[in-house]
Amino acid sequence: MASSLPLELVLITHGQLETIRLLNQLSQQDFEALDGVEWDGIDDDELDEALLLSGLSLHDLLKQYNTTFLIQKLVSTGHKERGPYNIDFPKSFAYFEAALGWPPDLFRHEISRTTFDKLVEVLERNPIFQSRGRKPQRAVRYQLATFLLRYASRGSDTLSVAKRMGIGVGTVWLYCRRVTRALRELGLEVITWGDEDRHRETADHVCERTGFPDCIGMIDCTLIRLTDVPSMWGEVYYCRKKYPAVNVQGVCDHKLRFISFEMGWPGSTPDVTVLKNSDLWRNRTKYFTGDQYLFADRGYQSSPYLLRPFTEPEVDAFAGPERRRRLDFNRTLSGTRIYIEHAFGLLKGRFHSLKDLGRHRNVNEIYQVIHALMVLHNLCIDWEDSPHDFIDPDVLEEMTEDEGEPVEVITFGEVHYGDGHIAPYETDEWHKEEGRMKRDEMLNRRFPLSAYV
C-alpha cells in the first residue's frame, strides 16, 4: 500500500501527532525541562525529532512541509507500536554504507573521504552528539552525510534526502540542525580575523603579486538566492535582480579562506550599507593596524581602509599616459581583488544549495546554515581538499557583472554605530580624501608617470 502512494505524501502516526499536540500545550519552561529526561523505549533521535516538531505549531508544521500529511490510526493489537515515519522510506542506510566503501576518487559528498573522516572525528567530540537517553544517537558519520546531501543540491530539499538515506523528514531536520550547530561552534576557531603573522603572510603574497603593500584581505558581498520569500517583510528580500535573497559580506585572505563575515541583511540591502553596519567597520581600529587595508571593488567608497579601482569617469577624465597608468592600476588591483569572488565561487560551487537555498523554519536558521557552510569551506582549505575543483564559473560571472555598477550614494556617516570605536574626525569627507590620497600614493609608487612618458 505504501509503495502505491505518491512520495510527496509524508506519513506521521496518530500517536506522534498526539504527542506533538501535547508538547505544544507545554509552557516554554516545561518544554526546556524535557531536554534532559530519559525516555524508556524511545530512540534518542526519535525523541529529539518529536521535540523538534513540537517546537512548531501544527499550522506551522503543515506550512513548513507545504505538503499533505496523513494520519495513520494504529490497529489495536493489545500493545502500542509506532508506525513508519515516511511513506516508502525504509529504515536503511544501504546507500551510504556503500558510499563509504567507494575509493577516494569516487567519494565526493562535496568533500573528500579524507576530509569527511577528519570532520567526523572532530564532530564526535561535541556534546550535542552525545545521547541523553538510554539508546544512542545514530553515528555522527550518518548525521554528517545527511547534512552534506541536503546542502549539496539546489533547493536543499529534505524529502529527497530522507528518501535517499531512509530516514524521516523530521530526522533530516534534526541531523542538519545538530551538524549546523557543531560547525558554527567550530567556527569560533576556524573563521578568525587572524594575528599579525597571518596578516603579514597575506600582505607579502599580495605585494609580490601586485606591488601594493599592507593589503591583508579582499572584501565583497554575495547574494544567496532563496527558493521561498520570508513571511516577515518579504518584499525587502527581493534584490536588484528581482529574486528573493539574503546579502552576505565576506573578507578572505590569499588562500581564499574567510577571515570575516557579516550576515542578517536582506537582498535589497546595498553592499556598502552592509559594510558600514558591520562589526568590522564599526570597530575598524581594532581590526586594522598601521597602514593595513582591504581590496574592494568600485561599489565601495574610498577610504584609507579600502583600496578600490578608479571609476570609469575617473579614468575617462584623462588621456594619454595618465589614462594608461590608471587602467594598469585597475587591472592589477582587480586581478587580486577577484580572490573574494573565487572564495564565494568555491563556496557555492561546493555547496549548490547556496545557489537556491530551500525552505527553513526562519531566516535566522538560514543564516546559521550559511555560517556553517563557510566554516566547512575553511576546513576544506586547511585540510587541502582540492578547492579549485569546485569553483563555479557562473558565480564568478555573476559577481563580475557587479564590478561596473555605480558607486552607492549612501555615505558612511548615515549610520549610528552604537558601541563602535569611531574617531570623531572620521567623517564621510575625511574617508573620501584620505582614501583618494592613499590610492594616488599607490598609483605613483607602482605606476610612476615617468614610466609612461
UniProtKB/TrEMBL annotation:
Compartment annotation: Nucleus
- Per UniProt, residues of the DDE Tnp4 domain are 219-378
| One cellular component (GO) term of this entry | nucleus
Q: Does the keyword Hydrolase apply?
A: yes
Major localisation: nucleus
Q: Does the keyword Metal-binding apply?
A: yes
Q: Which UniProt keywords apply?
A: Hydrolase, Metal-binding, Nuclease, Nucleus
Which domain of life, per UniProt? Eukaryota
Task: Provide the GO MF annotations for this entry.
Answer: hydrolase activity; metal ion binding; nuclease activity
Cofactor(s) listed in the protein's UniProt record: a divalent metal cation
- PANTHER family to which the protein is assigned, alphabetical: GH03217P-RELATED (PTHR22930:SF85), PTHR22930
Q: Which family does it belong to?
A: Belongs to the HARBI1 family.
Under what name is this protein listed? DDE Tnp4 domain-containing protein
Q: What lineage is on file?
A: Eukaryota, Fungi, Dikarya, Basidiomycota, Agaricomycotina
